[in-house]
Structure formats: C-alpha cells, structure tokens
Amino acid sequence: MAWILILFLILLGGLIAPFGDILGTKIGKARFSILKLRPKKTATIITIITGAFISSISIGLLILVSEEFRQRLFVDIPFLQKTLDESKKALIPLQKEQKELEGKIINKEKQLNQLKNNIKEFRRGNIVIKRGQTLFIAEINSSSNLKIDFTKINNEADKFVKKIVIPINKEAKNILLWRPSDITKIQKIAARGGNWILLIKSATNVLKGDNYVFVSPDLLENKFIVKKGDVITSSTLGESDLNLKSINLKIKSLLRETRDEIKSKGSQVSEIKTNGNFVKKIRDFLQENQNIKFKLEVVSLRDSKTVEPIVVEINILKIES
User: Fold this and answer.
1) Domain ranges of the chain
2) What is the per-residue pLDDT for 232?
C-alpha cells in the first residue's frame, strides 16, 4: 500500500508540475497581470501556487489514505512535544544541582590551590605564624581616646610579633601592615560606646625572617560569657552508670559540650580550666550513694568575659525520685 501511494504521489507531482510550468509560460506570453503586477512576476506567483497545490494534495492524500501517517501527525507529534516539555521541566532541578556542584568544585579547587601554596611556603622556609592565627588581644574602652589607644596597641603588637618573626633584627619597626579601611572600621564601631576586644590576626602564613606581617582585625563586644555559679551544662545518669568508667566518659562529654556552649556565646577561649577537687568529691559520693539517679552539673567558678579564662567545677547531685 505504501509503495502504491508513493508511486501515485510521484506521478501526480510529475503531471501537475508541467501543468504549472505551462500555465506560467502561457500567462507570461499572454501578459496577464494579477494585482497590477508585471506579467513575469504574475507567472512566477502562479508557478509557486501550483507547487503549493502539489504539496497540499500530497499531504491530503497521505492523511486520507495512510492511518500510520495520521497517527504520527495527530498523536505522536503532540505526545512527543508534551514529553519534551516535561523533560525540560525535569531538567531545571538538575541544572540547579549542576550549578551547586560546580560551585563546590570551584571551592575545592581554591582550597587545593591554597594547600599547594602552603606546601610551597613550608618548603621555602620555616613558618612561624599561620594564616588566621591570633597575634595579639587588647581591650578598647570607648570612653578613652581611641586614636591614642590604637597607636599604643599597634606598637605593643608590633613588638610582640617582631620577637617571633625577626628576633635578631632589633632595629626593625612597624612590621605589621594594616588596611586603612580596617582601622577606620574599628574606630567607627568602638566610637558607638561600650567595651570591646580587639583581636589582631595574621592574614597570611609568615616565615621566619619576613620583613612584614599582613594583619586583619576582629572587633568583639567584651561581654560576660558566664557568671560565677552559672550551670553551663548538665547531664542525668541512671543506676547503671554508677561506676568510674561511665562517670569519666560522661565528664569528658560534658566538658566538650561546655566548650561548644561558651563558643556559641562568643568566648574566644579554646580550653576550659577545671577544679581538681571534683574528682574526689564524685568518688566519695558514689561510695555513699548506690541505686539512685543523679545529675552532673558543670558550674562556673568565676565571672568570665569574652577573652577571660573559663574555670569550672563538676558537681554531682541526687535526683529525688
């Protein structure tokens, strides 16, 4: 059937095409004009219409005779278009994930390049100060003269860092390099009032013997992190935990939680100091009390601000049933 249809279309095109050519030639010779066009252009238009007529008849016959063609034209093509639209919608989240993945890759490449640079610096010399390391801590009171205070702090920090980086060169001065915008920012914030802590950090790795150290400041509010008698963290234990091994594990866990807690409040202290008497107190408690529930509390022994040490003791208490 398909071959017969194709053969028929070829014959039909072969018959109509000469007809269109003859018609166009006769119209040209007769100098016939449509819409006031020149005869030559009129003949060209007639030829084009004839070609379009051939195509229309061909498509019409295919639709009329071939069920497969109708299926492809009216069912398959819309279905494919719908599928394509759905695929485009499904592709949107994948494109977002691709962008996120590309961003992560870029960050990893930056970290890798930084690591390579650090390795080169290690090979090139002896690193005495690491990037991000706190070099100097000072308190700034906004009620005093900020410019005088800042100059004094800078000079003291410069002397301290110089002893680390170039201890032999006693004549070297002003090895700390600040960005003017950082200094202006510090003075504006401190001028608002209150007490502040200035952390001077190294902006780069520094080798022994370097002549300059680039620094970046961090200004923090000098506030109370804990006060004397505050319970920072606590934990309840049952009868099965009444042994020294369980107690020791719980104490280590509590101290980690305590360190995380004070960090979240803004403390710049990395270690917590403990009162050693609590170990004997807990041991004596366990000997006198059995088969009960109890609580461990980490209690502050002093008022501590942003950069002041955190000193704690661990108390053990009965839980009334």
Assistant:
1) 2-65, 128-222, 225-318
2) 92
